[in-house]
Amino acid sequence: MQHGKYRFIVGFLALPLGLYALFVVWPFIQSIYYSFTDWTGLSPEFKMVGLDNYRRMLDDEIFWKSLQHSLMFAVVLPLVTIGLALFFAFMINVGGRRRKGGPVISGVRGSSFYKIVYFFPQVLSIAIVALLFAFAYNPDSGAVNSLLRGVGLDGVQPLWLGDPDLALWCVMAVLVWSTVGFFVVLFSAGMASIPADLYEAALLDGANRATTFFRVTLPLLWDTVQSGWVYLGILALGAESFAVVQIMTTGPGGPDYSTTVMVLYVYQKAFRDGQAAYATTIGVALLIVTLAFAAVVMRLGRRERLEY
Amino acid sequence: MKTTESPAPLPAESGVPVTKVDVPAPQQRAGRTEGKVLNVFSHGILVLWAVMVVLPLLWAVMTSFKDDSSIFGSPWSLPDELHFDNWSRAWTEANMSDYFLNTVLVVGGSLVGTLVLGSMAAYVLARFDFPGNRFIYYLFIGGMSFPIMLALVPLFYVVNNMGLLNTIHGLILVYIAYSLPFTVFFLTAFFRTLPTSVAEAAFVDGASHSRTFFQIMLPMAKPGLISVGIFNFLGQWNQYVLPTVLNTDPDKRVLTQGLVQLAVSQGYKGDWSGLFAGLVMAMLPVLAAYIVFQRQVVQGLTAGALK
Lengths: 308, 307
Known about the structure:
The complex is a heterodimer of chains A (308) and B (307).
Chain A: H1 5-34, H2 52-58, H3 61-93, H4 111-118, H5 120-123, H6 126-136, H7 143-150, H8 167-192, H9 196-204, H10 209-220, H11 222-237, H12 239-248, H13 262-271, H14 276-300
Helix pairs in contact in A: 3-8, 3-11, 3-13, 3-14, 6-8, 6-12, 8-11, 8-12, 11-14, 13-14
Chain B: H1 2-5, H2 18-21, H3 25-34, H4 36-63, H5 68-73, H6 84-92, H7 96-127, H8 133-142, H9 148-161, H10 168-193, H11 196-204, H12 209-220, H13 222-237, H14 241-246, H15 255-264, H16 272-292, H17 294-306
Helix pairs in contact in B: 4-16, 6-16, 7-10, 7-13, 7-15, 8-10, 10-13, 11-12, 13-17, 15-16
């Protein structure tokens, strides 16, 4: 296998690696460099300004707001999504259990139907989902308030996205709506591979559903849950939250900056305000937050791997 | 026989004691009523979420057939008649046809490019030992966890300097570059699982490395290519951030971008029914494809997370 090996390796790697280096790696390195300059992005001239951008960032009230919202996304979104998904997946796969006779565990009836339907939002673009919900949240003519009126709750007509206290939660709800299905399917696949005798043993010991879930299902599923947590957090800090906040909230960024997130702030500083260098500074902060988040989840979640 | 088979046994476990399966039918019914209260509860919540998923989508479809006044007046009423003109207006006047064409071109080009380049890199990284192999592998993998937005600002100027801003081929190249991390990660793992003996035999028979790859290894890697292909297809079809930054020419807009612009722009004067028609138009092909290729799509999208 040695003949012409290196020529082949170089030949096969050159194009993909070149493309990747040019459009992904190089911009990343550049952006860290630019964060120490006063580059506007509009003119090719700039000079080094040291840590000025970072100092400015620490005094920037909107930056802190965006950081706070991004962190909330990264904590609340995985918590709610994974919680709901675990519950649904458990019900679908194990919830239909009976005490006597038949197989030890079984899902509720129509479990494959639920898995198909729950997955719908996953195949849709987050941009289209955001657009759809922006209409649904419309205070006057939207589906949500109209539904509330329909069931007699005429007094409860919130402004939703227009209300600074509610806007962020509305946006988050949309992300939960669109991500739960994926994790139901993912956890279902994991649960299906847990041997039935483990459930049987738990059952013989008199465990109820909650005990079964916390003592059997969750520990055996822990690896999947943990990587799902990291994946969701990265998603919540990154492109997905950009799309929902930019499309759904006014400004964009919501009334009184109530929904602005770090990704959106990077985008606005670079492409709206012509402050490219400052934008990359916030981008670097976002990178640090993302890496720290992943490290914390991996560390907190570290458990002995269970073999079964 | 039928009654014992009906409750879908989830993991087909042959180890389950045979005696349990042979429970007489009446007793089984009694067991079923016992768990009923809990089943009703759990079922209720499952149904509720299913409704919450489907209802907004149905509402959008319904709204796309209504005229503007009834959209605003009574959002939940059924359309008085089916206004198909919304759809034709969206298709022609609102440029949905152009957006579709642009999206098909961009996604078609980048999907092929991603699969070809991704499998080439993955094959070399999975099957050959050379200095720097690990480094290049981790360089690719690292791209999965870094926020794209950090790179976007300089990326805009890189693309601009190369004269690729607002071009279809420029967008294709960038899509490929940003799809490579996951593709390489997934396919490297896949190529490692393929037996080495076949490739060695081909090589002994005088096939060159590249011939071995294209004629022997690629066909063997088909299941992996399909999974990662579906993953990339959906990701690229639904991409929003990259075109928003790199593709600002109104004529070159892709679907997601075009729809958002329609919703925001003042130029599209209050034609909400047309906008909803466009929205549904963009949703339906993907949903239909998902329902038809359901198993493959789910496998493709969850493949990476399950390792």
